[in-house]
Each structure stands twice: as structure tokens, then as C-alpha cells.
């Protein structure tokens, strides 16, 4: 399949949004770690409505969910590229994958801290 670049501004941007949306759907429907993170994001959003969190709390919670989902997507992309380039185990590929997973860990710990700051006072 040949790639043809769409040089028109509006249709080019619309195609970009379409491909980004399709990529997000693929990510959510095919990757188990992303399914888990997406489920947690939905659960936290439902909890936000139940607990009547403030607009500022919604801002931080939404940013935390977006951060985790974004980094999880980048981690998945790194893993897929690494597996494509070198399908067999290789120490350097393993190191790269571990670093990408570490980025997800940092994002998840940040999200947990934000969630704790929002919800612990509401339960106490």
C-alpha cells in the first residue's frame, strides 16, 4: 500500500484525528495492560461523580488518567517496535523495554498519589 500525504489542511487534520482515534481503539481493545488502566480510569471517573469532586480535583484526576494512558500507549509502542526489530530475547531490548515500563510505573505512582490526595480526605 502506497502512502499518499494529504497536503490540504482540513482534510489532512481530519485524517490525522481519524488515525489517532483508531489507534486509541486498537490500544484499548488489544492490550491487556491498557484495558486494565482504561478500566481503572473509568472507575475513578465514576467515583468522581459519586463523591462530587470539585472542578480542580476533576482537572487533576483527568490529567492523571490521561498521563497514565498516554505513557502506557508509548510503552506498548516501544515494546511492539522492539519485538519487531528483535523477536528473540536480547539483553539490550529487555533493558529498553524495562525503561519504558519504568515510565509507566512513574505515571501510575503519580496517578495514585493524586487519587489519594483527592479521595482519602473524602473518606475520612
TrEMBL record:
Residue ranges of the TM segments: 34-53, 99-120
GO cellular component, one term: plasma membrane
Cofactor(s) recorded in Swiss-Prot or TrEMBL: Mg(2+)
GO MF annotations in UniProt: ATP binding; kinase activity; metal ion binding
Positions bound to a divalent metal cation: 31, 79
Biological process, per Gene Ontology: phospholipid biosynthetic process
Residues holding substrate: 72
Main subcellular location of this protein, as a coarse class: membrane
InterPro entries the record matches: DAGK, DAGK_sf, UDPK
Keywords: ATP-binding, Cell membrane, Kinase, Lipid biosynthesis, Lipid metabolism, Magnesium, Membrane, Metal-binding, Nucleotide-binding, Phospholipid biosynthesis, Phospholipid metabolism, Transferase, Transmembrane, Transmembrane helix
Residues at which ATP binds: 19, 31, 79, 97-98
Pfam families reported in the protein's UniProt record: DAGK_prokar
Membrane topology: Multi-pass membrane protein
Cofactor: how bound: Mn(2+), Zn(2+), Cd(2+) and Co(2+) support activity to lesser extents.
List of catalytic residues: 72 (proton acceptor)
Location in or out of the cell: Cell membrane
Family: Belongs to the bacterial diacylglycerol kinase family.
Stated name of the protein: Diacylglycerol kinase family protein
